[in-house]
Structures are given as structure tokens and as C-alpha cells.
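Key result, reporting period 2: structure in, sequence out.
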């Protein structure tokens, strides 16, 4: 028998007057799990975070944390820590005083406050900055202090609203690894809001891909990347080659043949003949030449993009959808923009999705 979720959100809904921002969202989170809410601006991820924190009232649904329904409790009684986008540190306090603030507000004994502050200063590698004003810190240092302040009171749940958005790329990558290490070391349950797919893939135990107020897929980073459940998940998480077509044959064993602008292709799927579908395949699963799989096409090369450790070859597509290869190896000799290039990919790597008829 599966244990009850540590955080259990059921049918959460919110409407600000222009349509639903959250449309009956269900989300179950295990104790110690790190979940990322991933999606574009306006998809409802920050609204869901604020409802969990008690900073916004849901129009419907419930939020249960550690067996207690907290749906109607004020924020200070939910035992939830929040790290905001702008960190919201107290500029007139030192690093140590910021970390101690929540403990003092709860009336913790002085010895406990001192020991906890020292512990978290060590955990975030900022013991040497204890007496420094937070105004003198870099963005990455301020982010560490904000996380330590939120965790010092030992909340049951930590919520993080795009805390790395103001940091440069290299610092973001460092902070992602540091935060993941810290939360796993402490066994903290956390919900992380981001629109950055790489961030979600790196940090999460599971990712909730959100679109238009709903969760389209909830799974491990590996599963979402390898087998995205919807065209939106395919497009939003990672790069993809996408080819539209019409089913011309169906094999009861679970294979469909699809006629596309690039030729006849096959995929796993169950669709009736005549159904419009979208075929998706990850660009690193596509090879130059005809030896890479059963699906072989010869699109026209349009551009080659160098990205350091990776190289992308982009091809012209009659329907303007992306067709590309991504490789960490050398490109074949003699590639010329404007010329057709034979590429191939396996049927097993090709995913078919229903596509609304134009």
C-alpha cells in the first residue's frame, strides 16, 4: 500500500476574471521530494505556489500538508518556507541576523538560534560573512542567505519562486548544484517554480510540465525528456524535430505509417487511417546517412550552428516546423547549405501525437 502524499493538492482552481489560471490541478508530492513546476509565463505555476503558501486564496480545491488540511490557514501557520524571486532579505541586518530572524520571531532559545545560524552559515559556505551587511553581498550570496533563512526554522515544505532568475548563467549553474545538494542533505521537501527547462532537468526528482492552468505531464526528468506525453511537453522540454503528416496505414502491432512532406515515416502509435498526427524525435537521436534507423528522409540543409561541445544542423521544412540534428561529433564532409542531406532515425525514437486538423 502506497503511503499518503506528504503534500496533496486536489482540484486547485483560480480565476482572476479573464479565464481560469488554475483549472483543477492535482499534485501529490512525497516527503523529501524535489518537484519543479515548469512552464511558460502565465501557465499558473506561480499562482499554484502562492496558493500552497497561503499568499493567494484558491477558488476551489484543497491543500493538505503532512496529513493536515492547510487550505484555510494563514501563511504563518502553514509551516512553509518561501524563497522569493527578489530574495526579500532585510537590508538593515547582517547575514547572521537575517538567518536568525525567523527563529527569533518564533521565540527560539538563544543557544538554539546561535547553533542553527552557525550550522547554516557552514552549509552555505558563508561563515566568513556572518557579520557582513547583506547589501554588500553578490546576487549568488544573497540567494544562499535567503535559502538559509527559509530553512533555519525547519519548515515542513520549502517553496522557491524562480530564485535564480537574476543570476548570470555560470552562477545559476553553480547555485543549482549547491541548492540540490543542500536540500538533499537536509531531506527537505521542496517545490521549485521555473520556466528554464535545463534548470528543471538538472535539479528535480520529478517535473510537473504546466500549460494553461493544467499539469500536462508529471514524471521524472528522464521520462519527460525521452517520452514527452503531449506536443507541448515535447516542444517545451528540450529541442525536437517535429514533422506533421497523415496516417496512411495502421499495424495492429502498434505501428502507424505517416505520409509527410518529407516522405513516408513510421512510428509507434494507435491512430485511425486518415488521422492528422505530429511526429516528434529528439535531434540527438537522428543520424547523418541512412544507417541511423528505419525512417530515412533527405531534407534541404539550411544552416549549421556551432555551440561549443555540440553542433546543430538545421533543415528547411515545408510546414515551418523545426527539423534538426544535434551532434557532439564531427559533421560529414561536404555539407552545403541549400543541398538535400540524407538523415535517418529509428522508429522506436519517433513519437506520434494527435494533431488538430487545419
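The corresponding designed sequence is given below.
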Amino acid at each position: 500500500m502506497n503511503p499518503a502524499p506528504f503534500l496533496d493538492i486536489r482540484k486547485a482552481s483560480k480565476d482572476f476574471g479573464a479565464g481560469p489560471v488554475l483549472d483543477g490541478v492535482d499534485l501529490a508530492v512525497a516527503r523529501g521530494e524535489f518537484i519543479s513546476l515548469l512552464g511558460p509565463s502565465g501557465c499558473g505555476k506561480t499562482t499554484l505556489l502562492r496558493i500552497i503558501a497561503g499568499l493567494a486564496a484558491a477558488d476551489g480545491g484543497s491543500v493538505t500538508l503532512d496529513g493536515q488540511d492547510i487550505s484555510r490557514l494563514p501563511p504563518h501557520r502553514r509551516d512553509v518556507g518561501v524563497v522569493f524571486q527578489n530574495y526579500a532579505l532585510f537590508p538593515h541586518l547582517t547575514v547572521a541576523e537575517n538567518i536568525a530572524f525567523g527563529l527569533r520571531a518564533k521565540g527560539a532559545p538563544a543557544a538554539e538560534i546561535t547553533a542553527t545560524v552557525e550550522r547554516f552559515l557552514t552549509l552555505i559556505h558563508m561563515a566568513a560573512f556572518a557579520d557582513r551587511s547583506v547589501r554588500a553581498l553578490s546576487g549568488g550570496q544573497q540567494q544562499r542567505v535567503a535559502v538559509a533563512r527559509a530553512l533555519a526554522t525547519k519548515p515542513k515544505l520549502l517553496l522557491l519562486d524562480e530564485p535564480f532568475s537574476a543570476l548570470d548563467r555560470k552562477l545559476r549553474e553553480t547555485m543549482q548544484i549547491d541548492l540540490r545538494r543542500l536540500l538533499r542533505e537536509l531531506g527537505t521537501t521542496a517545490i521549485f517554480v521555473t520556466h528554464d527547462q535545463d534548470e528543471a532537468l538538472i535539479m528535480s526528482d520529478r517535473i510537473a510540465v504546466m500549460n494553461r492552468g493544467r499539469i500536462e505531464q508529471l514524471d521524472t526528468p528522464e521520462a519527460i525528456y525521452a517520452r514527452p506525453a503531449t506536443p507541448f511537453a515535447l516542444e517545451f522540454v528540450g529541442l525536437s524535430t517535429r514533422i506533421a503528416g497523415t496516417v496512411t496505414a495502421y499495424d495492429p502491432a502498434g505501428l502507424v505509417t505517416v505520409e509527410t512532406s518529407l516522405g513516408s515515416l513510421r512510428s509507434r502509435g494507435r491512430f485511425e487511417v486518415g488521422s492528422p498526427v505530429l511526429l516528434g524525435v529528439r535531434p540527438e537521436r537522428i543520424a547523418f546517412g541512412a544507417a541511423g534507423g528505419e525512417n530515412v528522409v533527405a531534407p534541404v540543409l539550411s544552416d549549421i550552428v556551432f555551440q561549443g561541445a555540440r553542433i546543430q544542423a538545421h533543415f528547411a521544412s515545408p510546414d515551418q516546423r523545426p527539423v534538426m540534428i544535434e551532434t557532439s561529433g564531427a559533421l560529414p564532409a561536404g555539407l552545403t547549405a541549400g543541398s538535400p542531406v540524407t538523415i535517418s532515425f529509428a522508429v522506436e525514437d519517433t513519437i506520434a501525437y494527435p494533431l488538430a486538423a487545419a
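The mean pLDDT is 93. The chain has two domains: 7-230, 239-354. This case is discussed further under Risks and Mitigation.
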